[in-house]
Amino acid sequence: MWYSCKDVLDKEPLSAPNPANYWNTEAEANRALIACYAKLKDPIISNGPGQSGNFTYWEALSDNAITTSNYESFDLVMRGQHNSATGGIVSKSWTIGFQGIASCNYFLANLDRVPNLPEQTKNRMRGEALFLRAFYYNDLTQLYGALPLILEPATLNGNFMKMPRSEKAAVVEQILKDIDLAIQYLPNIAYTNGHAVKGSAIVLKTRVLLNNQKLAEAANTAWSLIGDPANPFSLHPNYSGVFVGEQANNKEIMFSVQFDAPLDYHSYDQVVGGRMSVFPTVELRNAYEPSDPRRDMTIFELGDQWIYNPAGFKQQGSTAEGQIPFTQMAFKKGVDTLINNASGATLSDQHVVKMRYADLLLMYAEAMFESGQGTDIRAVNAFNQVRARASVKMPPYLILTRELIRNERRVELAFEGLRYNDMIRWGIAQQVIPTLSHNNAGAKRVFKSYLFPVPLGQMDIMQGVWQQNSTW
Q1: How does pLDDT run across 423-448, given as a tens digit for each residue?
Q2: Average pLDDT of the chain?
Q3: pTM > 0.90
Q4: How far apart are the first and last CA of the chain?
Q5: Neighbours of 268 (CB within 10 A)
Q6: Which in 104, 202, 215, 386 has the greatest CB count within 10 A?
Q7: Closest CA to 322 of 52, 49, 50
Q8: Distances from the Cα of 369 to the Cα of 181, 359, 444, angstroms
């Protein structure tokens, strides 16, 4: 159940170092820090080479998308047919998260051993590891609720087999402690090279606070950056360029999982643009206002220009690996429309955007509204900034409503893996999911629970110590 750094892979893996002769140089510390980031490159968090799916399949758990693939059991969760013995995301999310936490714990426990490491460098590294531990723990507690709170590396004589699951509130308290230190330690600079910065931690803290209904605190946290004259982030003029083609030194991207083909690549274009086994719902298409250009930048619809077929995106004559989805739509967002990748002939290296400034602005607007401050001009301006982007230019709203804010998040952030978490946070999943179809025959989905079950293998190991989530 508990993992060490030797289990993670990256371009510069940390392979079973001998603690007796490691941690002698800054370079060794950097390799250990890279190991803390490594689990972000698991395909269910971002992407990977030779995969039949990726992080975008999380959208199929929401009202934004459908999947016809059995990749990592997303289809079972979508249909409500999963249980504690289900593999794929039900078990892998747990394993990957705690592997990432183990790497962070190992790093934090040993960083001070490096001799002559400048204090500023040490603090920046410590801030990154704390940010990542908080990132992994936030994802885990959103999915599973109560968790074992592990803040030290495992030892041979440790008592981990007796460790209880801490209630979610205690886990969130620790997450916020980690993030506050990360905010203190990380530089207030633009995000460029894959390493977390202060802005990354502020977005994460805002997200955690919103997830846990700490609304006024979430608004204050978001404003600490939005209202800062030294804020290095801003909206990128070209909406589609945030996801492919214009990602280098992009001031909107606040944290991402970065790739660099041909050595470090993934199969996004092939999976999303070729196989099309995760694709938009009619409900998502209808959520866009009639003149919203983001619809065309997010969704392939019949007649759209499409490299797979010179005649355009259409039901017949596709040269892609699969047929056009039965909704007659596919996702365009993040796909390089200028390459033909139906057979995996090219290697994709778009960075997977996990946090961006538009999300922070909309979280701020939501937090302000839900805490009774929705008429504050700062909240209204933040909301309308997103709509006023040069490539979007949607008209402003003078009065905010819950429906407007939630729909704006939906269309602005579609296909970025955030919608399911939003629906869980808002408590609307049990009402919405059963109204959705999951196939061409119109069969309805089933929503089983706001939490995943703790994987059966973990429960078997911890018999008599842990209790399964009540809905399972």
Answers
A1: 999 999 999 999 999 999 999 999 99
A2: 92
A3: yes
A4: 21
A5: 29
A6: 104
A7: 52
A8: 28, 15, 33
